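Why this split exists: single-chain examples teach little about how molecules sit against one another. For that reason, every record in the complexes split bundles all components of an assembly together and asks for one structure covering all of them. Below is a record exactly as it appears in the raw files.
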Amino acid sequence: MQQDEVYEKLSLVYDPELDQSLTELEFIYGVDIDGSEVTVTFRLPTYWCSPNFAFLMASDIRERVLEIPWVEQVTIVLADHSDSEAISHGVSQGKSFQETFPGLSTEELDALRSRFRRKSFISRQERLYRHLVRIGLSDADIVALTVDSLKQLEGINAEGQLLVQKYLSIRDELGYANTPESLAFVQLDGTPIPVGQIAEYMSQSRKTRVAQEVNGVYCRGLLKTRYDHEMTEKWRA
Amino acid sequence: MFRTQTGEEVFVIDAHIAWWDGSRDNQLNIHGEQFINCFYDYHKNLSPQDRLWPREKFYKYDKDSLIQDVFIKGYADMAIFQPVPLIEFYKDGFGDVAKNATLIEEYPGRFIGNGYFDPRDGERGLETLQYMAETYHLKGVKLYTAEWRGNSKGYKLSDDWSYRYLAKCEELGIKNIHVHKGPTITPLNRDAFDVADVDDAASAFPNLNFIVEHVGLPRLEDFCWIATQEPNVYGGLAVAMPFIHSRPRYFAQIISELLYWMNEDRILFGSDYAIWEPDWLIEKFMAFELPEDIAEETGTSLTLPIKKKILGENAARLYDIDIEKQRALIQGDKLSVAAVQQR
């Protein structure tokens, strides 16, 4: 089904700050298909959500949906936002961030995106670390884990498996080696975490993870409040 | 005044209240409507279901509601106005220093009225600030770095003009700089994560106190990062507080991170009235305990002495209030009497 194909692509588009997909977050309002043209409408928790993030999401949606072989044109509609028109038109016409907001920005959004991907790396790693500690691994065990031994860990439940998967996937995305013998727990610069420093290191990471989670709860709540009666019936043709 | 079950008295200063006018009559354009609607969404999202206001009242409420909610129901001994003008969205401003002053006068010893400035107002703005400081005896200002001014959709505390205004504040005895650091708007490509401006300003002006309202939410970690390094940076709990009802575990995480990265002396309670009513915030806060696992993770705890600091003692110190003297001053005034009758 064509709709399903589009939604599958949309599930790969992430809110850069919340590290959750737009489908999980219920930001996607609707998908319209007309031949080879797809229109995706999405909306955000508040009218004032940062335009740079909104732009990133809009342009990622467009890029992902264009990957579908039968799709030739993608129109993005960002609804109910302070920059709805500029972003919807800019992205749909394939304009860059600077072209969409001439005079108001000084650079493209790559630095922003990678900054938040790195934060997500830290959060996913910290969550995994806490889980491993809870199931009985020592800090010494953890710093010694390779990608392979992480995947083969015994006594790990479904929740843990998901955390491992998410961590390995972002490692992959950010270009860390994922060969079986690669060290599983590394710092942002790829260096190992000395066992004596892991507690301190993870406290630092904890605040990133807490901020991200609180943010997620905050945003989801605001979205639901905003579109209360509509949230229960997801618009899907 | 909040009295615990064991008879302990807690002096309460609500360090973030407003008396706004977001009514349709005052809305200058669609943004005026959108802004107050956004506030209303925050109100709806995080308030207990039985404490929701009708939209019309939320747009513009009268002084009796404010007095009742903040002082009589709301346990506050004192409250601090943190006005925001938003003159590009509202004809007569969203918050108004002169209007607030009428309440300050009517209830002596109960209110502190802060002012505001916008560094994009240049030389003229400096004069206005001086006038405001002298007329209203300002000890603090509220800054909204995302406020619009003509073509500009925001400014930074690290801008040259900001420095001039902060230097002026120091000269005028305005010690407390409350900065809203929450969902941000522009400059478009930087502000999302950039708290460098608070960090920068706090380092440049060690004699000023920078109270980051909303503790930077959603940028909590960025706030913690700078607060841990800058002794003159404080966290205002407005917006974080209401999580105590809908998401108590997240509230626990927020407050324990704040205690971990800063300390108990640099956190200020604020209800952000009228987005949320202070009474249920304070009641739940006083009853609140950190879940064991979170307390263990950070090694922090929320004891009664710490709660007292957060609810009033820290703000008192910033605003040079001698709590005992103030208690004596307001004792038996019409608000105390009304509060006693209420209970």
